[in-house]
Amino acid sequence: MNTTTTTAGRDWRQGAECADVDPEIFYPLDLDPHGPAVTTAREICADCPVRAACLLDVMAGEDPARRWGMTAGLTPDERADLYAGRQLSSALPGAVAA
Ligand code: SF4
Is the minimum distance from the CB of 2 to ligand 1 under 6 angstroms? Predict the structure, then answer.
């Protein structure tokens, strides 16, 4: 989960798989990408029908210097990698931004 808001609003959250789940699951102390805590959050996100909207929302609104918790099935480091990849892709001549 995240706490950002986009111009599209938050209606998509009504279908979130995590709506009725303990929020602590998404803020594990152990962020080992293959560890049990992250895996538990990933499994919930994997079944989420609004995962794409969730990912777009967090990538649009999350402060790159303050990433924390699991969102859209990704760790903070994974979202940082995704963000960096988008920047690199859009900077290359002829590349299409993700
Ligand atoms: S993708 Fe994960 S964090 Fe995002 S709304 Fe769905 S269950 Fe929640």
Answer: no
Q: Structurally, how many domains does the chain consist of?
A: 1
Mean pLDDT by 10 residues, the chain (98 residues): 52 93 97 95 96 94 93 93 66 41
Instruction: Give dist(CA 45, CA 47) in Å, integer.
Output: 5
Provide the pLDDT for residue 11.
87
C-alpha of 65 from chain center: 15
Tell which atom from ligand 1 comes closest to the C-alpha of 51.
1
Is 5 a member of any domain? no
